[in-house]
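Reminder to self: tokens first, then the designed residues, so the page reads top to bottom the way the pipeline ran.
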């Protein structure tokens, strides 16, 4: 249950913020918003502010004119709301919870349902800079969300300052150190009978001993304790690549001081940039053959990691949400039809050609992009299921 709730929390925030960016950008340039959807079709519940009141609809299968079950509204109710401003924008919750979209007038989107009339409130009638502003707003909001979350975490948790002292500051649950009983505040004395004078000595020995049994001695309140523990193998950044090292799940060699608001914002920006760079490096490794497509995860992996983060505490969950937000921003800005970056590419190409592509061409490009995205979804789901059943 924790995993399910954590996934709903993470994806709910990210999707809402992303689509809210598109929604506000559309309103800022006078584009008519026809639908704001959390989840992909078919629709399940919708609310539409109209001049007569708030129109509520519940969708499910019903008998159509051909005597076959069709998906459509089974309940329609007009709720009186005299102070509600009519916008005729349909706000809906859809069945497939793996995304969302904002459907605006005069725009070929994920629904592949569009009618372009040339009205001034259609996106296609706006200049190309305004169109790019709308298309990039979701990515901008995801980056902004990551900066805000990382900045908030920094303000709450403080800024680490390196001391080099071999004192444990954090222990990862489920790792060998936690299972052996090491706690924050413990001072590591030796590893494999080698005296530890500073934190770098500890990491050097442990990183060089992946999947090996090591003896660790530490001090707590003047009492010496020791344990044999088998290191795990895990990845860490090494320049432009990733290397596998030994890990026991401890962090230290630093102290924490209170951060100012300015420092928190700067740190939030730096951490967002760091994770964006990590995504770029990881993708580069896949292209170069240094990493496998099997390493790519999807919704099941996100759910598992979200659950683990939630069990580790709210700070860990918010940090994980920020990291996934950076991932979502990176993926959406890729120049692939069906993604925000693909739409920006089409508008850019139209600007170079100095003409609008026909609706038929746009629909074909969008369909090709959706097919490519579907293939990617199949790959990541296959990877997720393989991990789930092999681990």
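Designed residues (391 positions):
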């Amino acid at each position: 249950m924790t995993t399910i709730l954590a996934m709903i929390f993470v994806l709910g925030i990210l999707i809402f913020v992303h689509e809210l960016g598109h929604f506000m950008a559309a309103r800022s340039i006078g584009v008519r918003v026809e639908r704001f959807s959390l989840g992909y079709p078919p629709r399940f519940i919708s609310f539409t502010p109209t001049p007569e009141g708030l129109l509520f609809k519940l969708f499910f299968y019903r008998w159509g004119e051909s005597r076959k079950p069709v998906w459509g509204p089974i309940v329609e109710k007009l709720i009186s709301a005299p102070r509600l401003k009519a916008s005729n924008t349909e706000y809906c919750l859809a069945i497939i919870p793996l995304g969302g979209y904002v459907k605006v007038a005069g725009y070929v989107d994920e629904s592949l349902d569009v009618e372009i009339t040339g009205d001034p409130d259609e996106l296609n009638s706006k200049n190309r800079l305004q169109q790019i502003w709308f298309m990039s707003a979701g990515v901008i909001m995801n980056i902004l969300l990551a900066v805000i979350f990382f900045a908030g975490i920094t303000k709450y948790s403080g800024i680490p300052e390196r001391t080099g002292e071999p004192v444990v500051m954090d222990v990862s649950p489920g790792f060998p150190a936690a299972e052996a009983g090491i706690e924050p505040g413990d001072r590591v004395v030796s590893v494999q009978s080698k005296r530890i004078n500073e934190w770098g000595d500890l990491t050097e020995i442990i990183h060089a001993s992946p999947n090996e049994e090591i003896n660790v001695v530490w001090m707590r309140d003047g009492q010496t304790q020791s344990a044999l523990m088998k290191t795990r193998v895990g990845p860490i950044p090494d320049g432009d690549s990733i290397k596998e090292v030994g890990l026991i799940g401890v962090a230290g060699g630093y102290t924490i001081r209170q951060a100012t608001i300015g420092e928190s914002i700067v740190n939030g920006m730096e951490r967002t940039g760091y994770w964006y760079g990590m995504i770029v490096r990881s993708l580069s490794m896949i292209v170069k053959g240094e990493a496998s497509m099997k390493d790519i995860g999807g919704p099941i992996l996100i759910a598992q990691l979200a659950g683990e983060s939630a069990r580790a505490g709210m700070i860990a969950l918010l940090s994980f949400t920020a990291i996934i937000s950076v991932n979502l921003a990176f993926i959406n800005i890729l120049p692939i039809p069906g993604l925000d970056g693909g739409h920006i590419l089409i508008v850019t190409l139209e600007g170079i050609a100095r003409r609008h592509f026909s609706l038929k061409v746009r629909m074909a490009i969008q369909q090709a992009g959706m097919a490519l995205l579907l293939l990617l979804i199949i790959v990541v789901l296959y990877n997720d299921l393989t991990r789930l059943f092999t681990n």
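The longest helix spans residues 359-390.
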